[in-house]
Amino acid sequence: DLSDQRLTYFYEGEQVGSFLISSGLAGTPTPVGTFYIQAKRPFVDYIGTNYSYLKTKWNLQFKPRYYIHGAFWHNNFGTPMSHGCVNVSYANMESLYAFTDLGTPVIIRR
Asked: What region, left, alpha or beta, does residue 55 occupy, with left being phi > 0 and alpha being psi -120 to 50 degrees?
């Protein structure tokens, strides 16, 4: 839920976890809609004109170039910070990564 900057996940209708995230900034928004996990990558290098986050852990691709992933470079969860991805603290991302299978639905709303 982008309005709350919160990711909540469920198994068979029961809540498994819920925590603050950092979604995309106004100029680089996180897409809204229903998606599915397309790939699980233990490490990804995120490199842009003003950032370089190498070997970022626990990456769940839900759309080409868009991931739910761990973020080690800030601790400002609850505030939009990203270039469109969903940033999650490493403390929360490891268990979400282990829980999630390919094809898991991802519903992103405002």
From this structure: left
Q: Which long-range contacts (CB under 8 A, 24 or more apart) does 82-86 make?
A: 82/22, 82/23, 82/24, 82/25, 82/28, 82/30, 83/24, 83/25, 83/28, 83/48, 83/51, 84/24, 84/28, 84/29, 84/30, 84/31, 85/24, 85/30, 85/46, 86/7, 86/21, 86/22, 86/23, 86/30
**In this predicted model, what pLDDT tens digit does every residue of 25-77 receive, in sequence order?**
999 999 999 999 999 999 999 999 999 999 999 999 999 999 999 999 999 99
Q: What is the pTM of this model?
A: 0.96
- Banded pLDDT at 102 (limits 50, 70, 90): very high
Find the helix or strand (DSSP H, E) in which 56 lies: strand 51-63
**CA gap 61, 50 in Å, rounded:** 22
